[in-house]
Amino acid sequence: MSASSPATTVAHDEHHFANAVVPPIFQNSLFTFNSFADMEETYSGKKVRPVYSRGLNPTVRAFEEKIAKLEKTEDALGFASGMAAISSSVLSVVKPGDRIVSVEHVYPDAYRFFEMMLKDLNVSVEYVDGRDSDAVAKAMPGAKLLYLESPTSWTFHVHDIAKLCAIAREHGAVSMIDNSWASPVFQQPATLGCDVVIHSASKYLGGHSDVVAGVVAGSRDFIGRLRGQILPYLGGKLSAFDAWLLLRGLRTLPARMREHQRSGLAIAQKLAAHPEVTAVHHPTLGRNMPDGLTGASGLFSFEFSPRVNIPLFCDALGLFKIGVSWGGHESLMVPALITRAQIGGPNSALRFNVPENLVRLHVGLEDADDLWSDLSAAIDAAL
Ligand SMILES: *Cc1c(COP(=O)(O)O)cnc(C)c1O
């Protein structure tokens, strides 16, 4: 079977365990050997087969193969969370004394991992505005890694991924991108020259707010090293049941993304026209589709005029729930006020350069007119 479109890829499986249309959950820790020779061939590397589910599990493998196909990479590796995927990938390329370059406004826990763990390991991190490719080029000499996220968290800045990855390559650095926002349906960074593509699978890939997981897609070499030299020791493996939930979620990923895009744009347009809204940060609203991005998901942010009382707005919402995370069926709202206090409080050396009047929305799969009624009534109640 050969399929290049995401909609066809997610509907069919490579493996047919007993002709089941849905792969079974291999809920076992170990796989025994038939003989001494079987064991010897496996341990000497002549044969690849599951031995222990920390390393290889058939349900997890089915998920990994599907992600590699969607991201158009040679291979992929599942993780227990998006952060396990990020930290394992970064730690696989840096050693003490190294320097990495990261774009600003990456996912806040990735930023904290850089600031609170990498720095202790004597790895320095320089942050640059990813919209400014000259600034990126200036920061790159000597760096081991260029870490990207596009669009960025909270601010939704869009970067020229092909250009930035070409700069990284010129400097002999690995390029990595967090592609959770767009999903492989709307952006396939490997086709733009990015070496390593990372997802929090807890968001759109799973899509139902019932699993925390991550995945890394890349070359056979990179994923082989991650699987052989990092995953066994850091141990952040994906569970078979979570992989099964992800395979189930992936079946509807292209259909869900179309709906998130449609409703998200409809709400963003209405907000942009609202007198109490001073800015809307949506990567594709009112502008040409940036290179490499073929659609928009349902996550964006906007800024309120000073007349709107944000705590009152939060409490007046009904359909939009107050909550972090995103990518599921349900609509969510989180005010930057809370995250600013959490990350960049007065005694913190960490920075969270996001305006106080900013609110992030995840537009879920509810009816867009119902969602707009909820939002506009909550704005009226907060004036
Ligand atoms: C949630 C998130 C992560 C972290 O993923 P977890 O699965 O929660 O560990 C990483 N990147 C982005 C952009 C996210 O939104």
Give a verbal description of the structure.
By secondary structure, this protein is of the alpha/beta class. It has two domains: 6-250, Type I PLP-dependent aspartate aminotransferase-like (Major domain) (Aspartate Aminotransferase, domain 2); 253-381, Aspartate Aminotransferase, domain 1 (Alpha-Beta Complex), CATH 3.90.1150. It has helices at 6-11, 36-43, 58-71, 82-91, 108-118, 133-139, 161-170, 183-186, 220-234, 240-250, 253-272, 310-316, 336-343, 368-381; strands at 75-79, 99-103, 124-128, 145-149, 174-178, 196-200, 214-218, 277-281, 299-304, 321-322, 332-335, 358-362. Strands 1-7-6-5-4-2-3 form a seven-stranded mixed sheet, sandwiched between helices. Strands 8-9-12-11-10 form a five-stranded mixed sheet. Helix 3 (58-71) runs parallel beside helix 10 and helix 12 packs across helix 14. Bound molecules: pyridoxal-5'-phosphate (PLP). The site of pyridoxal-5'-phosphate has 13 residues, from helix 4.
